[in-house]
Target: Hypoxanthine phosphoribosyltransferase
Amino acid sequence: MDIQDIESDITEVLLSEEQIAETISDLARRIEADYGDDDDLLIVGVLRGAVMVMADLARALRIHLTMDWMAVSSYGSGTQSSGVVRILKDLDTDITGRKVLIVEDIIDSGLTLSWLLANLRTRGAESVEICALLRKPEAVKVELDVKYVGVDIPNAFVVGYGLDYAEKYRNLKSIGVLAPHVYS
Ligand SMILES: O=P(O)(O)OC[C@H]1O[C@H](OP(=O)(O)OP(=O)(O)O)[C@H](O)[C@@H]1O
Ligand code: HPA
Ligand SMILES: [Mg+2]
Model:
């Protein structure tokens, strides 16, 4: 299978490579306006979906920061959240007194971030905020206090730029709606 075949599994491109870059840049400017060099900002990427957002957002931010990672999973290999969040890898950093910004690829049901936010807020950080590239307003099931959202998207299963279906498509440069023929 070559790249041409992968892209044919996308019915509609929601965000092109250029639109993703603009969105990340806008997020970075807003984050910079709220945090300065002295804030000792710790950005926490949520593996594995947020890898691309983390890599690009970190490079777009023109302030000092440190990076750490958590791995949680709630989706298994399907397209519906199980609602059961598992920690697969915890932080290596003690976040007591730190300013923490969780970086995510997508808020779908919101269950993953709701759980993660509650978990990190028990650890004595000065602040814990959320930055998500995408949000599906029609799919969100829980009230979630999200400080930075890139783009609101329709309630369709999307892939690319870190987002997967059964672990594939994370390497697409754009974000698009997965074609129904892929499910069957
Ligand atoms: O708002 P929710 O309905 O909770 O869905 C969002 C979460 O689901 C996906 O991760 P997943 O658990 O599939 O693991 P992955 O990041 O390794 O792809 C995505 O990367 C978010 O972390
Ligand atoms: O639309 C989605 N695509 C890929 N992974 C996801 N995890 C939650 N929602 C999605
Ligand atoms: Mg994820």
Remarks:
- Residues 9 and 182 are 7 Å apart (CA to CA).
- The pocket of hypoxanthine (ligand 2) is lined by residues 75, 106, 108, 157-159, 163-164 (CB under 6 Å).
- The chain has a mean pLDDT of 92.
